[in-house]
Amino acid sequence: MGIFTFGAATLLLFSFAIGPDSVALRQHAGGFLWLALLLASTLSLAESFEREMEEQALEGLLLLPASARALYYGKAIANWIQLALLGSALVPIMVVLYDAGTLRVGNLVGVILLGTAGLSAPGTLYASMTAQARARQTLLPLLLFPLVVPVLLAAVKSLGGLLFGRVVED
After folding, report:
1. Which of 5, 43, 107, 147 has the fewest CB within 10 Å, making it most exposed?
2. Domain assignment present for 140
3. Would you say residue 169 lies in a domain?
């Protein structure tokens, strides 16, 4: 719930940054949604390993007769589901705040699923690497943000195409 509140507050702050210009708000709605998802994802990913570190569950997981690859995929899929649900929950807020209009729900779900998969796969890896670091709240975004720029560009362009009915080109 706290991550959803953070994402919604981020969308609200971005709308304050643009001001009352409804055309500019509509044009940047897709980018603002993905920026809110990116910022909220760093909290979500770090929190997913923080609980395991506090309870010392990571050592228990490593003692299981399962491969490290299976543990990673399980954690990445769980993070992906959480980010996809967060993205789906933030869409109505984006539509209301930015007057984004009607969306094609099937296409929108596809963009959110693909984009959040691109965030959760490297995010899970870097969150696990930085889980025991002192400056993990700073280190995770520094490592993750440059890596997910291509995913974000594709997701923003795809969502912009959905919002305005344009064909997405290279």
Report:
1. 5
2. yes
3. no
